[in-house]
């Protein structure tokens, strides 16, 4: 067992982990942050996306020890300081960008990373960026609308699939 220390959602945390402990496992089991979902264990679905040092990563592809000293942000850290939903979270709610909710944490984290890199993405850019995230319920249409709305763009022009 090795001690790992990182900052998660602005708070310093540490824990003892085996070398093979995945970041997703450390967050869920070690820290009790179950908002990061594990959907496939093969890096295909994107349900486990978190931000590590400002980059969106699939936490099932990183060892917890790789995050020694890192800044990690999870879905639990996305809300505003007063506990209200962030702009992107509110847009997902307002535009029905979720159904069963299983993919939602990863989608929100991926969308937030996209908007950091590209504050006004086109519909095609959003769909391209979401390529690594799977949703089995919504067909992505409302997720794209939510991201467009969060970026301050008109959602009326989005073509139905």
Q: Can you characterise this structure?
A:
The structure is a single chain. This protein has 161 residues and is an alpha+beta fold. It has 2 domains: 2-77, Ubiquitin-like (UB roll) (Roll); 87-150, Orthogonal Bundle (DNA polymerase, domain 1), CATH 1.10.150.120. The chain is built from 5 helices and 5 strands. A 5-stranded mixed sheet has the order 2-1-5-3-4, with helices on both faces. α2 (87-94) crosses α5. The longest helix is centred in the last third of the chain and has 14 residues, at 104-117. The chain is elongated and about 55 Å long. It starts with a strand and ends in an 11-residue tail after the last helix. The model has no long low-confidence stretch (mean pLDDT 94). This is Carbon-monoxide dehydrogenase small subunit. GO terms for molecular function: 2 iron, 2 sulfur cluster binding; metal ion binding; oxidoreductase activity. Keywords: 2Fe-2S, Iron, Iron-sulfur, Metal-binding, Oxidoreductase. Residues 2-78 form the 2Fe-2S ferredoxin-type domain.
């Amino acid at each position: 067992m090795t001690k790992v220390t990182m900052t998660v959602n602005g708070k310093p945390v540490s824990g003892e982990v085996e070398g093979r402990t995945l970041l997703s496992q450390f967050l869920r089991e070690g820290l009790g942050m179950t908002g990061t979902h594990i959907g496939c264990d093969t890096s295909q679905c994107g349900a486990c996306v978190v931000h590590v040092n400002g980059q969106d990563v699939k936490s099932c592809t990183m060892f917890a020890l790789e995050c020694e000293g890192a800044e990690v942000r999870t879905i639990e850290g996305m809300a505003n300081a007063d506990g209200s939903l962030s702009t992107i979270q509110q847009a997902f709610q307002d535009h029905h960008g979720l159904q069963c909710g299983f993919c939602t944490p990863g989608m929100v984290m991926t969308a937030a990373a996209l908007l950091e890199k590209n504050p006004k993405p086109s519909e095609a850019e959003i769909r391209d960026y979401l390529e690594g995230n799977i949703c089995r319920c919504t067909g992505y249409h409302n997720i794209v609308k939510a991201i467009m709305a969060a970026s301050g763009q008109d959602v009326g022009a989005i073509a139905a699939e």
